[in-house]
Design a protein that fits this description.
With 174 residues, the protein is an alpha+beta fold. It contains four helices and seven strands. Strands 1-2-3-4-5-7-6 form a seven-stranded mixed β-sheet, sandwiched between helices. The longest helix has 16 residues.
Amino acid sequence: MAFAFTLEKWSKALAPSLAESANDERIPRFLRNTFPHPYTEECAVFFISAVEKMQDKGLFYAIVSEGRAIGGIDLTLQEDVHCRQAELGYWLNPDFWGKGIMTEAVGRICAEAFEKLPVNRIRAQVFGENAASCRVLEKCGFQREGVLRQSIFKNGIFYDERIYGLLASERGEL
């Protein structure tokens, strides 16, 4: 049985549960440094305010279960020569890992993007050691397009970066 969740636009009402869910030291390990730790309610309010101003730049959703934010997922439209492309990003509270939530959430947001946004390609950039994230993308039909060796530097460590892509023509049954 699939785990019940919804994808909802971020709202100030989700700030307390966002702060609680995001404040786990395991989450930012494979995320950009812009994802803070500790993650306070002030961080949550700042993030939600920023996202509310970016609604014309893509799709930005809270992953919500029982009225609480347990993660986040977004597709940010790119610019200039990449204007028909969106970048995928996501995170999930570790209490909900391994339940198929992120695979379903990625499938949903990608299907919506290809239907509603002027994109031909969705890309994702993943820390090479984040095997779970790579599996999520592969289950959703993304192709591994390459590896940028030691392109990520975080917490004093170099990581390879895996580049994934999904074309509108490849989306199949998301």
